[in-house]
Amino acid sequence: MSYQGKKNIPKITSDRLLIKGGRIVNDDQSFNADIYMEDGLIKQIGDNLIVPGGVKTIEANGKMVIPGGIDIHTRFQKPYRGTTSLDDFAQGTKSALAGGTTMIVDHVFPVPGSSLMEAYDQWKQWADEKACCDYSLHVDITHWDDTVKQEVDHLVKEKGVNSFQVYMAYEDYCQMTNSELYEIFTFLAERGGIAQIHAENGEIISKEQSRMLQIGITGPEGHVLSRPEELEAEAVFRAVTIASQTNCPLYVTRVMSKSAADIISQARKKGNVVFGEPIAASLGTDGTHYWSKNWAKAAYFVTSPPLSPDPTTPDYLNTLLASGDLSVTGSAHCTFSVAQKAIGKDDFTQIPEGVNGVEERMSLIWDKAVTTGKMDENMFVAVTSTNAAKILNLYPRKGRIAVGSDADLVIWDTDAVRTITAKTHQSAAEYNIFEGMELRGAPQVVICQGKIVLEDGNLHVTSGVGRFIPCSPYPDFAYKRIKARKQLAVLRAVPRGMYDGPVSEFSLSRGGTPSASARTSPTKQPVRNLHQSGFSLAGNPAACGPPTPEDLPIRPAGRRIVVPPGGRSNITSLS
Amino acid sequence: MSDCRRQWNREDELPVYLAGPISSGPNQRKSYGMFSSVEGAFDSKTIDFDSYAVGRKGSRTPRSRSRERILDSGDPVEKTPGDAREGSQTNSTGEIDGTGTGAEVQFAEEENLPGKDGRLLIKGGRVVNDDQSFYADVFIEDGLIMQVGENLVAPAGVKVIEANGRMIIPGGIDVNTCLMKPYLDTQPVDDFLQGTKAALAGGTTMIIDHVTPQPEGSLLEAFERWQEAADKKACCDYSLHVDIPKWNETVKDELEMLVQDKGVNSFQVFMAYNDLYQMTDSELYAALSFLKELGAVVLVHAENGDLVAKEQRKILGMGITGPEGHPLSHPEELEAEAVFRAITLGNRVNCPVYITKVMSKSAADTIAQARRKGSVVFGEPITASLATDGSHYWSKNWAKAAAYVTSPPLSPDPTTLDHLHTLLACGDLQVVGSSHCAYSTSQKAIGRDDFTLIPEGVNGVEERMGFVWDKAVAMGKMDENQFVAVTSTNAAKIFNLYPRKGRIAAGSDADIVIWDPDSVKTITAKLQQSAAEYNIFEGLECRGGPALVLSQGQIVYEGGKLQVQQGTGRFIPRKPFPDFAYQRVKFRNQVKNSQGVTRGMYDGPVYEVPSMPKYITPSPSAKTSPTSHQPPPIRNLHQSNFSLSGAQIDDNVPRRSGHRIVAPPGGRSNITSLG
């Protein structure tokens, strides 16, 4: 690690730290205790800790000490048509740390048709060189065939990736058909992966896009007009259906609209294992800016799914986040310069998509949800950090202040007020979509890997110290329920005497062997919520309304149906 | 019994002339009320009781009397014995007690010329339309209703039907039958003759059948084939939907022809049947856009075909080959998903969508939700989903289980039917079809080793009206007017047949049913009109049924007897743009114009992209105000406080075209200062 060299000089300050007088806030409870850290790990928590002399001590003065944020969705250094997004891993992680986020999870985006492994290695190399905080990687599946299958398998087993994103949008580029989605979800469910989904109906979007261009709408407002929120909701609904069919945990990235969020919360009420991720942009601002007269400003808001033009959306999403219907927050941070955005100055479909948000994420949620009384501080920790750690199977190493956890901590100042502006933000972007917004709540001290990286408003970061944190498959948070359901959802056939009546002459092909199954009870469907369903199985048909006495006797094999030619009542009399 | 005795004195108070004249044997008694049981069950007992208890033989029986009184409490005007409204009424009152088994008296005058020039008078009935009920006589001539009013005087020689205060309802319209749907070269056992016979026997006087062309076949040819067959055989009026098996340019021309020249205004598209009829989302978008221009109603078979195919393979792979594999591979979520997608498509295109065969709770809920959001969508549950459930797929009897196979499948959840009735009663679902498509057991047996080959279809055209009455009206979920709406009027409105069909009014077709709410029958294949060997409602008891059915002014069903004539059914052409579906769509079309924002051209630095495809000229939009942007139709306009971009801060400061963004290389703050 690169700080090894420097270690000798500020030895004590960097290695051993004591936070005194803070209020520790985890996702489950808050309590007052001191924290002692050493070698990047939390060693002790409690009152009156016995610590070695000469330890640097931070006085928290009763302020909140929370686990460092985890931004579960970033796209640093994303290649787009030969250029890359402005914020690379150095700039991006710097922004993250400035906002109190001590870990990011970036998306590896292999160009469709290329190797997942190569892309993964490329991203890992970039990040290892530059990242200032710990990171992990999602891998996007941009095409699907047997090679990809093997690569996914390899990534899960050897490379510490447990989440893969697939696209329902971007027709003719990386969009997956329903059948492919079904296969991918089935495959991921077997391997213990999380299926992330970019949910928008790509086919209809491309129709709408060409319609918009046709009627002469070429500016950024065309982006939101061609991607109405119902297409997002529709795709979320479809993804939920496919996931529940395949019994695979589903993670919806970038929940941008009310209706999509509603679908997710409905699905959760029905018992589906589905997680929703609103992003900083959808929690903090809305899509009315697409109609701005300033092209550059309007273009800066372009992301997919688009921000909803309904100005009540951020409030609504914050409410669902507070109630637990949406689980985690990301930022989908992916910034482009105005010049890059201007690639699409004559055609909104060419505008590179992406907004900023990694730095503002935590403050935004504090300001919009906690200070408004929607959410308590524990839930705040859950949605900014703990839930993400659980989904990625990093808990309790990340996302919790506990002995043995990584020393990624933030001392949160609930009273600080700052105004967001591109002039002072860490990102390299020329514009900030939250420009001018006043946010209460900000990190006062940020500790990453046991070292102070932000103090008194000064950022001290070192490129390249970020470690790759491997994520193991089968995170309990998602898979405990999945496993239990798998055992229940075994289908069995009904044993019947073979039908040997007359058969019309047109049978074309034969399926498998007739009625092979041995067990008696016809069972439930995997998809239906077993707790809710009143379906009492066919074994007890008497309860299902019409009396079906004929269900009871099994026709002895010796007694065949004799069907006289043209006889009409024979089958009836059988039943 | 105590009840009977209590009523006994009342009986004695009656004037003799009321009790007297037409009284006859107990076999002519009808059973009244919700508590009556099977017809004739009391006969012998009551006779005995009569003869022991009173001297007045058989004039009326205590039981029937008491029952009648229970009913009468609701409308004393009509039937209270002492209240003689008028001459004919007196007659009818007298007859209540001692009249015909099934229903009303056929009170023919002596010179009874049955059906002579089709003049008929229905007297003393209660006309029930979808909006109101009222007592009136109905005069019919030449297959049309000429007059509806009180105290109509029958010209001499007109046949008079005494309704005795019973309900007179518009004949049912079954919007979904498949009487000629080919499956691997076999035809359903019920053709247009059998099918329409069954329909009439159940009180349905019009059917709309599905024309199913082969995927590569011509729509027009198929349509003509169907029409020819139906003209020869149908016993009641009919109309035709045309299924679109494939989407391409030829189809477009044919659709135009069908709408403009052939009187078809509804077309079905499929989201299921992978590799056969299924359309992709893009094709659906194109089809909906096109059909909307034609003013047609789009019927959608909503199931996610891709996933069904996957599930079928999985289920077969597990060794499940029997009919239970059918519901297992068609879980109801896939139905709900497709319904949701269809509605989304309909909203985007601004086209009315009609979901055929709503079989599950979740699909119905999806429709109900969409309607709350303002989507123009209609849902059609069918007889099978309203009267039985999918637990029978697990029957040990293969033939029985196979008889239930239809797509989407019946839901195994036995509470489904109740839920669907509730939604039907509150208007969230609008029409009831039957999807009648009966195959013989030997045809079903094509799939005995592989459930995916079982021909899909259930019966229901005959039982449709009865079950809606039994499960919804008799249970108190629905009133009689809504009953008329869902069985007839709504269908007529959606498919632009109203008010010719679906209403009892002067000028409408004389397709009329006199409905007997008290008749009870047990459904069995032995007594059904359909040619199928098995009835999926076998053994169910059904209250309510037609006492008399008039089709085109002719009595075709009376007292359990069917008198039909093959080939009398006429094709009823339907015009496009039915108001019921298209009025809202038209207004939305006017409102919903997207407009661009007028901006100065961006002339800052542009990142050089190698070989970028260039579209279209830059920002040609002419209008200034961005305000005409409307939210997409799904969003409730009343709720959205979307303030349009007119409210932008920077809108007041229009950029002068002279004032360009000057972006020095690497300049970072310039754009910011602009925004």
From TrEMBL, chain A:
Protein keywords: Cell projection, Cytoplasm
The answer to keyword NADP applying to this record is no
One annotated GO molecular function is: hydrolase activity, acting on carbon-nitrogen (but not peptide) bonds, in cyclic amides
What sequence ranges are listed for the domain Amidohydrolase-related?
A: 64-453
Q: What biological process terms from GO does the record include?
A: actin crosslink formation
Q: Name its cellular compartments.
A: Cell projection, Growth cone; Cytoplasm
Query: Which segments does the entry list as coiled coil?
Result: none
Q: Which GO terms describe its cellular component?
A: cytosol; growth cone
Where does it primarily localize?
A: other
> Which region ranges are annotated with the description Disordered?
505-575
Q: Which CDD domains match?
A: D-HYD (cd01314)
Please indicate which superkingdom the organism of origin belongs to.
Eukaryota
**PANTHER family annotated for this entry?**
DIHYDROPYRIMIDINASE-RELATED PROTEIN 3, HYDRANTOINASE/DIHYDROPYRIMIDINASE FAMILY MEMBER
Please give the family membership noted in the entry.
Answer: Belongs to the metallo-dependent hydrolases superfamily. Hydantoinase/dihydropyrimidinase family.
Which named protein is this?
A: Dihydropyrimidinase-like 3
- The organism's taxonomic lineage, starting at the top: Eukaryota, Metazoa, Chordata, Craniata, Vertebrata
Q: Which gene encodes it?
A: DPYSL3
UniProtKB/TrEMBL annotation, chain B:
The record, for InterPro entries, names: Amidohydro-rel, Hydantoinase/dihydroPyrase, Metal-dep_hydrolase_composite, Metal_Hydrolase, Metallo-dep_Hydrolases_sf
Span of the signal peptide: none
Q: Phosphoprotein among the record's keywords?
A: yes
Ranges of Basic and acidic residues composition bias in the record: 1-13, 65-86
> Which GO molecular function entries does the Swiss-Prot or TrEMBL record give?
hydrolase activity, acting on carbon-nitrogen (but not peptide) bonds, in cyclic amides
Sorted alphabetically, the Gene Ontology cellular component annotations on this record are: cytosol
Keyword vocabulary terms for this entry:
Phosphoprotein
Q: Show where the Amidohydrolase-related domain sits.
A: 168-556
Q: Ranges of Low complexity compositional bias?
A: 617-628
According to the UniProt entry, which residue ranges have a biased composition of type Polar residues?
637-646
Disordered: annotated segments: 1-33, 53-100, 613-675
Spell out the NCBIfam families in the cross-references. D-hydantoinase
Q: Which family does it belong to?
A: Belongs to the metallo-dependent hydrolases superfamily. Hydantoinase/dihydropyrimidinase family.
What protein name applies here? Collapsin response mediator protein 1
Query: What organism is this sequence from?
Result: Nothobranchius furzeri
Print the organism lineage: Eukaryota, Metazoa, Chordata, Craniata, Vertebrata
